[in-house]
Amino acid sequence: MELFDTATVLTRVLTSGVVMSIEKSDRELPGLERLLTKQTGRAKAVLLNSRTGAVHAALAGQGIGHGDTISLPEQDESSLAFLNWLGVGVVHDGGPAAYDRIALDAENAGRLPELAAASTAPALVVDLTGLGFGPAAAVLTDDAKAWARAERLKIFGAYDLRTMWTQEEADDSLVPGVQFNYRLSPLVAACARMALTHSARPAALSGARS
Known about the structure:
The protein contains seven helices and six strands. The strands form two sheets. It has a four-stranded mixed sheet with strand order 1-6-5-4, with helices on both faces. A two-stranded parallel ribbon has the order 2-3. The chain is globular and about 45 Å long. Strand 4 (100-105), helix 5 (112-117) and strand 5 (123-130) form a beta-alpha-beta unit. It has 210 residues and is α/β, with parallel strands linked by helices. It has helices at residues 3-16, 28-40, 51-61, 77-86, 112-117, 144-153, 186-209, and strands at residues 44-48, 69-71, 89-91, 100-105, 123-130, 137-141.
């Protein structure tokens, strides 16, 4: 992304006065959610501030936690270490994967729809960190219950951002044993959305010429 575009995004977010993800008037997080659901074909998106947070949310959304065992393809050492910290065992038995993972960067960001189409797991973790604007990730799913559980995991003391100030429980079954501050900032969301939007333009232009 060009420096001018980055400056434009930063100016827009900072002048809006909405820089925290708990603000009801934020438009950046919903904007990135809409873009990701459109490009991946999944119905729901959960935005988080790290890849490990997204993995945690993908599992918690499916009710997977300490003492459970999941099937996954070969994983890197850091992923296995995090899963071990969660108390989740991993087997490589060729069974249905608990989640699929895509790591985006400047080279492959324009291929997100293609990469997502190959995913068959109930949850898709998209690591946005490689786009260059700080740790960021998302969980995409078609399961409304998994989405609700994942949303709840990332917020302290409230069902979601809309009820954060009332401290009302909308559904006691969604309350996790431990909650984490996995919320993504609107500023990072805005930059990631701009990077993804720009990455899709060359493909659209080349298609128009043919």
